[in-house]
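dumping these here so i dont lose them again. two proteins, back to back, each one seq then structure tokens. dont judge the mess
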Amino acid sequence: MTDETNKNGPDTVAEASMPESAEEQIVVENEAEVDPLDALKAENADLRDRFLRLAAEMDNLRRRTDREIKDAKSYAVTGFARDMLSVSDNLRRAIEVLPEEARTTADAGLAALIEGVEMTERGMLATMERHGIRKIEPVGQKFDPNFHQAMFEVPNPDVPNNTVVQVVQAGYAIGDRVLRPAMVGVAKGGPKIDATADVAGKA
């Protein structure tokens, strides 16, 4: 019995002292290789990147909100201003319908009426300008489809082609936007603008 015990003893001790498997050893070694300081640095870098992204998004949101608020303030009266243009047109027509002779020979009552209509038009235009609405003055400018609407052509050899020479209906702009394009007549038959020479001149 003692021999069996002695015989089995060394085997038992050998089994107990056998090394762990290679996979377990690798896991232990990998865990031992992870430096807590490196882990903290990596986490800090990740948090910093997230913070910078969030800060950039908030800055973009703030700029977009400021722009939308500014646009809302600038263009809030667009619909009202567009409706008031017809009133301005009627005042202008009332002034222009009277010939110059009638103005000079008008009695005191008619002269006061004409002056009152003209003052009303000037006051209305001044009020519109205070709210960012300005009248487009295109005469003498090159035709621009963004601001002008061509109604007819006027033969004029002394003026370059596509130059605005007459305004049929005044145009208006609010801020950087066109409220109503000016209806205009453009010159035809004049000298053409040499694009090459224009570029050379600018250079």
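---- next one ----
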Amino acid sequence: MRQRGPHHLLSMADLDRDGIEQLLNLTESFAEVGERPIPKVPALRGKTVAWLFYEDSTRTRLSFETAAKRLSADTMNFSVSSSSVNKGESLRDTIETISAMGIDGIVVRHSAAGVPQQVTQWTEASVINAGDGWHQHPTQCLLDLFTARTHFGDLEGRRITIVGDIRHSRVARSNALGFATMGAKVTLVAPPSLLPSSLEGWPVAVCHNLDEALEDTDICYLLRMQLERQKQAVVPSLREFHNEYGLTVARADRLRSDALIMHPGPMNRGVEIAGEVAERPQAVIGEQVANGVSVRMAVLFLLLGSGLDVVDNNRIAA
């Protein structure tokens, strides 16, 4: 694991291929924990994890909280709406206050890119980026990689097509890097108005024709229109976007039988994906959510645990 600090996960750039493999292998062990009658292990007993979510979240927050509780960690929930942030308290003062209470990890989500990196300067706790602006969402990428590996095994040479609002998507940035690191070939599909102004450093190809891009694709990864981040109209209408760039029933019918349909959620049915398509067996969106708990258990354990002493032959000791 290449890390900017001794114990943080801020970006997929912090992980080389071996680091990703280590996390995915450990995730398999924690997935087994989730299948037990009592899905709980004492791996992080005595550790405390705080949640600082300055943006709304359902899947990511609940997933991290479930992961921490299954590891027997204590949790500290920070609610921005009822905190001293509303009295003008700065981010730094909030971090230093929480850190003074004695915590081992902070999971941060914020609308501004770079905030998790800044937080590392104000605390001795491990910092995990749960999404920062348009920048990165590393644990989403890891759960997507785990889901894909579950179906395909080695991802070397697999074709990944990421479709939709690339410009405003931290998931697109993380996944482009993560899948490419694992040897996959990533293609971005979007109108020019939904692509970043520069793709320098992105290990991707670009296509503006979805029908062409879907030929021989292994994973069609759909992104929602992030209207809350858009400052001006970027497409003529959502209906036109669906016709040109949505995974319609007709397009889904042309996918290979073993191709996967993925989405980070929440879905906008009838925009980036037809409602009927979201219910097909090829759509593994529910699997992604379930795998998110196991992946985040692995991340929390590697960053906060005292080592791999509770792991015996890839099985987590009860």
